[in-house]
Amino acid sequence: MEGGGRVPWVKYGSLMSFLVVLLAVWFRPPQDAVLDGRLDTVLSSLLRAEGKVGVNNVARPKVAIGFGGCVDLIVDGVSFLNKIGISYTDQPVHHDYLENAEQLAQSFAYFFAPGAAAERFVLNDTLFNELVEGARDLPGNRWSIGGNAPVMAGRMATEGCDVLLGGSFSTDFKEVLSQHITVAGEVIDEQDIHLILEYSSGANWGSYTSRRANRYIVHSDYHNPYLASMDDFAEKLNSFKPDLLVVGGLQMMDNFPFKSGERAALLSHLADLLISSTPQIGIHFEMASFVEESIMEDLLEYVIPNADSLGMNEQELPNLLSLLKGSNITVLSDPSPRVATVLDQMREVYRILNQRYKEATADSDAGGAESRGKPLTRLHVHTLAFQAMIVTRGSQWKNTMSATAKASLTANRHVCGSNDIDPSKARLIMDDSFSISLQEGSQRIPLQDTRPVSCWDEEDYEICVAPVLVCTEVYQTAGGGDNISAAGLVLQI
Ligand SMILES: *[C@@H]1O[C@H](CO)[C@@H](O)[C@H](O)[C@H]1NC(C)=O
Ligand SMILES: *[C@@H]1O[C@H](CO)[C@@H](O)[C@H](O)[C@H]1NC(C)=O
Ligand SMILES: *[C@@H]1O[C@H](CO)[C@@H](O)[C@H](O)[C@H]1NC(C)=O
């Protein structure tokens, strides 16, 4: 009886729960809608974080940026290689520089599948001219202002700064620069062309599929490696009185056939310029793709110790760290590293460089000489999935949280080629939470949609991490690092 009495109720109950489940399924937003909602929240929260502080537009900050510049000819990498008849090779080989078409194919193959950014010097004029001619009439190609210094200058001018730009430019080139940019350097007849082979995530070349969107750059630039504008730049610096000095474009010297001792002399001259600038002015050095070990050693001697701030991507960070630890150059690293990996590498670079600074100061104190170099107080690493910054507490750099948010938004704006961010063309690829270090038992930080930039204190510095709304309809990757780094700096001056 008891059991029998319960039967209808049980039946009724199951029906009820069935209905509840049905209703739940009915009303559950489709997966995409949940994700869209999440992207909208992260986007509006990042915009709020970016907008918390503004650039001082009344007294426009003054930024001096060197060196050089070029015209970028941007093409779809795979269509281009197909068109000029450079066929696919299943033999990826790493080359420091390129002398013939086969090496170009091998080198492209090396970086294309992992989707790692690379830049190589072509030591064969005939080949390079053939490449440029082939790219000139490729449908869909585009021309744009290129080179780290002009791109960073353009971004900073757009964000409200007055810029002194060091470089030798043609009259045509100067005409398209912002009115807020003043050039220091001689006028040249023709601007060097850099050929940018872009590819999207999932692009195919032979049996290779690229894991992420990126670019492979070739150039045969005989002007920029000499930093010809340096003296003019140094002279104009005195009256310009910048609030920030930025150095980039030095990768043009990588694997360039300099005469013996020529490069070190140029970089030593640059070191003098940096040392002679007012100590209170922040100096930022933007790294790039370096593969020649001896130039990295020169940078470690002449440039990096004189910089307060460094900017780099996920390839350049392990490369620098490896060299600081006395190992070889790392040509290719994981193009999509985890937050914990990057933060550990950043902590180590920060620690080693500041340790070196302390030792150098102690040495020069002991020898009675003037102390040389500066401590590293800012390190910004831009990756596809997130932006990370280490900033020394109490240093001159302001607004680290907003700057990290701005860097992250700029990544999407640049790659999508639009100032307005469209969440339907964006994707979050950072995990829902991240560990702050690979060390066992490290804290995990959840990615909060309403407060996407996470900042916390360690030792004598603050760390901030912001997710990137990764652009899914790629317009351009080249110049991304420069736009991102410049955008981050603008809020910190
Ligand atoms: C330079 O490139 C041209 C054109 O591709 C090629 O014919 C020539 O063999 C190359 N020179 C060297 C030294 O590889
Ligand atoms: C570093 O590079 C040198 C020269 O290319 C090579 O002989 C050596 O084996 C490399 N060392 C490591 C640890 O890879
Ligand atoms: C990146 O900088 C270049 C040069 O200033 C500019 O033309 C381009 O529009 C920038 N990208 C974005 C998204 O602002």
Automatic annotation (TrEMBL):
InterPro entries: ADP_PFK/GK (IPR007666), Ribokinase-like (IPR029056)
Transmembrane spans: 9-27
Keyword annotations of the record: Cytoplasm, Glycolysis, Kinase, Magnesium, Membrane, Metal-binding, Transferase, Transmembrane, Transmembrane helix
Protein name per UniProt: (Atlantic silverside) hypothetical protein
Entry-linked Pfam families: ADP_PFK_GK (PF04587)
GO molecular function: ADP-specific glucokinase activity; metal ion binding
Domain of life (superkingdom): Eukaryota
Annotated source species: Menidia menidia (Atlantic silverside)
PROSITE patterns documented for this protein: ADPK (PS51255)
One GO cellular component, as annotated: endoplasmic reticulum
Biological process according to GO: glucose metabolic process; glycolytic process
